[in-house]
């Protein structure tokens, strides 16, 4: 099948407190809150989208802050995205360490991988986050954010998938989804799609003895890959179904259209269209300012707003 996947689209995590999430990804990490909406599958929980100015595919990190709904803390392990990595400019890691430590965050150095230095920390929900330094990312950061332009996050770098037995996962990525292996170091394989710039890569760690992952607070729920339009998405869906994958119907996520399926290693994959994007219901300067609801939830706005925890940013 020809290569239809353009890049990563977004990464979505199950988080704990809503305000801590906004403080971390907005104020501390300097991402733009590009959409404040609700989980379309549970309108009592926020869905926050962070990214660069427009929230371009490949820069988007999204969270469902589930505090108060009895969701247990998840187990990190095999069959899961265990680390989310953001791309920052080369030479900026010292500034980042200082900034994070000043905010009380415990930061550790990551041994360089594939020639790139990185630091790691946990967010307030327990999610494992990395900042990977490199000089090959020309994406514009969010310029009005709280972080100096010279250090600001450019978008997602990639994700790490922990997989017990990754052969079939790698085959799916290379044979169907258009990825190529671009590096191997020990138990780790880096794959990339449509070039190998940050935002186009993911890494698989072969972890035969890892505990089995359980979704819950502080774990990543899924990774979404970007596809150009609805027509290509239907072609990809048909191909996945032909290969025996259980793929959902196309779901309208308001800002993109999505299909979901589980890859052989257990990780939930989504394939999301690039259009229409986050300006479909707000103008570019106003992204993220108001609570936006999809048309089918608007009649319930008053009740929904009453149940959501109040937040400021
Ligand atoms: Zn998603």
Task: Please explain how this structure is put together.
The chain has 313 residues and is an alpha+beta fold. The chain has one domain (5-307): Roll (2,3-Dihydroxybiphenyl 1,2-Dioxygenase, domain 1), CATH 3.10.180. 16% of the residues lie in helices and 37% in strands. The chain contains 5 helices and 16 strands. The chain has helices spanning 18-28, 93-102, 167-175, 230-242, 301-307, and strands spanning 5-15, 32-39, 42-51, 60-65, 80-89, 108-113, 116-122, 128-134, 155-163, 179-185, 188-193, 201-206, 219-227, 251-252, 257-262, 268-273. Strands 2-3-4-1-13-16-15-14 form an 8-stranded mixed β-sheet. Strands 6-7-8-5-9-12-11-10 form an 8-stranded mixed β-sheet, covered by helices on one side. The protein is globular, with a radius of gyration of 18 Å. The N and C termini lie far apart (45 Å). 44% of the residues are buried. Bound molecules: zinc ion. Zinc ion is lined by residues 10, 12, 222, 224, 270.
Fold topology:
Layout: E1 5-15, H1 18-28, E2 32-39, E3 42-51, E4 60-65, E5 80-89, H2 93-102, E6 108-113, E7 116-122, E8 128-134, E9 155-163, H3 167-175, E10 179-185, E11 188-193, E12 201-206, E13 219-227, H4 230-242, E14 251-252, E15 257-262, E16 268-273, H5 301-307
Parallel strand pairs: 1-4, 5-8, 9-12, 13-16
Antiparallel strand pairs: 1-13, 2-3, 3-4, 5-9, 6-7, 7-8, 10-11, 11-12, 14-15, 15-16
The chain binds zinc ion.
